[in-house]
Write a structure and sequence with these properties.
The structure is a homodimer of 346-residue chains.
Chain A (H helix, E strand, L loop, with lengths): L4 E2 L3 E3 L5 E9 L1 H4 L9 E2 L10 H19 L9 E6 L5 H9 L4 E3 L6 H14 L5 E8 L1 H8 L15 E2 L2 E8 L8 E7 L14 H20 L8 E4 L3 H14 L9 E3 H4 L11 E2 L1 H18 L4 E9 L3 H5 L6 E9 L8
Helix pairs in contact in A: 2-3, 6-7
């Protein structure tokens, strides 16, 4: 069997697995943001008709998963693997959602990089013929994350200017080699990231902690595929936010691979208006998951975008590691997505 | 590309990825148990020369990983993916260990099923040519788990008779299609499990919560591969313990697929003596990880075992889900391991 490995980190997918469908379910604040109209469902309130925020997050995952399956004209029993994760301890949103679906479950933890971690793994499994149809999910919820990582909401603590706002949202993406509908996009390459840590210890500045990992993965992808930033219509990072994005642009410039400001966007900045008081921007697994499935995939399907890099970024610390004085390691996984529309056809 | 899927859940691996090497590093209590002599390293105390139990667990992961790489005559830079996880929130043992290795990191969360979750995924990636060499790790530490899930050790709480004892241990397994040493075993099939929950809510009886998932995966594997328990020298479960194992035997009998008592063993029962006061037996990701790498792989390599099912089992609850009154979902992932020794050759 020939290797599909290109260079050090990138893997080429000769079968170009199709993204058959994507679905995104978000909270009310995200619904009021600039992308509000593109999401499949906007919750009326943070509880989504449930008894707890945790149950609401789980329900978002389930709803996004079922919408993606339905859009792709599959049944739950057609799905071979349900893979994904979230920010909660022991990824209870994903695993309890998996309990409702009678589908083999692959639990992932990549912090906010989970959406692209799942797409990398899922597309390799489909490309290799090990799975027919794979559903990748990722979610986060502002209220469950605040409760677990920071303070009870009732405490009303102040946020630092570098802090990001955890997106309430879930995204689901269905991958297959034999789609039953017109594909939204195809995955041609994946690049799984190394853990990079330049010593940032401020848990309220995760963008800065993740930017070096984002640069590391991008540089590997460019080197391995012998491409440059200009070969892509768009490079979309997960949730670096204002500060992380500036740092990524600076790092890439220093490495001789400058990214054009307008061809490099960040899901954490796309999802909220400046006026929504989210400080440095959105974060959480649900941030890149909902922006990919609600906003980017339709633009690839229409041919408005031809070829993009989608790269979620994760900060891999825990409250324990931070309390023990550890710095924050970052990781970033990237996929190259191509439009199914041929050149000159739109 | 032809599908490698057999039946509903099982995947056949035509390239039969080799397990090149395995290494296990365990705590002092595990060193005093019946398998004490087979582990590569036994820590002198629970701190392993570190400042905290969390740092000790991370160091175990690193040491097991580096020993496996060295035994297989690889260098760290040869490894394409470092994949695995642990029981700690945000899997800090695995992700901080990954920071030390400049290798792309795939974070997994499958609770105590992590070792076989990693083997399933890793062997599919190697089989498909997406990775050359993959290192799978899993770990747990009695003191970090007690602190996080139960009570501070200083509290000295009493344990219920159904409680299990979290193993202090880490295991690392190196998978490849091009081994540089004689393979220890080959992976021929994988079967990824569904999340199964029969409503057990007692967090001190995880064996009972995991047994239905173990039965579900085993039954799928037998059906998909048209095999029966007698086709395997041994069926090894992760950490069902005394109670979970009895329940599994009962469930399999009811389903018309009885397991023979002596051909079905549990890592949680193998690792401790009755006199070690561990109640229902060992548990934790490190339990099946250390028993596989220290005890089972050498017996496959020698030909003493020809063909076994290795199936780690996980209880997917969190303290939050338990406090919110949820029952405990279980999951079990299985791999079929074959000896490299041909029949009649030993």
């Amino acid at each position: 069997m020939a290797t599909r490995r290109l260079g050090q980190q990138t893997i080429c997918l000769p079968m170009k697995p199709a993204i058959c469908a994507g679905a995104a379910c978000v909270g009310p604040k995200e619904g009021e943001g600039p992308l509000g109209a593109v999401f499949d469902r906007v919750m009326e309130d943070e509880l989504y008709g449930q008894q707890s925020f945790e149950l609401a997050e789980r329900q978002m995952v389930l709803d996004a998963a079922r919408m993606a399956i339905q859009k792709a004209r599959f049944r739950e029993s057609d799905i071979q693997f349900f893979m994904g994760g979230d920010l909660l301890n022991q990824i209870i949103s994903a695993s309890f959602a998996a309990r409702e679906l009678a589908v083999p479950f692959i639990g992932l933890y990549g912090a906010c990089s989970t959406m692209s971690e799942g797409l990398c793994l899922g597309s390799m499994l489909v490309d290799g013929g090990h799975a027919d149809h794979v559903l990748c999910v990722a979610s986060s919820h502002f209220c469950t994350a605040e409760r677990q990582y920071r303070f009870p909401l009732e405490y009303g603590n102040q946020r630092t200017p570098t802090a990001q706002w955890t997106v309430t949202g879930a995204g689901a993406t269905l991958l297959s080699l034999s789609p039953r509908t017109a594909p939204m996009a195809r995955i041609t390459h994946v690049c799984m990231g190394r853990v990079v840590d330049l010593g940032v210890t401020d848990a309220n500045n995760m963008g800065a902690a993740m930017a070096p990992a984002a640069a590391d993965t991008l540089l590997s992808l460019f080197e391995d595929t012998r491409t440059a930033p200009t070969d892509y219509d768009l490079i979309v990072t997960g949730d670096l936010g204002q500060i992380g994005r500036s740092l990524l642009l600076k790092l890439m410039l220093e490495q001789g691979m400058p990214l054009k400001e307008n061809a490099c966007q960040d899901c954490g900045l796309l999802i909220y208006e400046q006026e929504q008081d989210t400080h440095a921007g959105g974060s959480g697994c649900g941030c890149s998951a909902s922006v990919l499935n609600g906003y980017l995939l339709p633009r690839l399907q229409s041919g408005e975008l031809r070829r993009i890099i989608f790269m979620s970024t994760g900060a891999l610390m825990s409250t324990t590691s931070s309390q023990q004085g550890e710095s924050i390691p970052g990781v970033a996984h990237a996929v190259v997505l191509e439009s199914p529309v041929e050149k000159g056809k739109n």
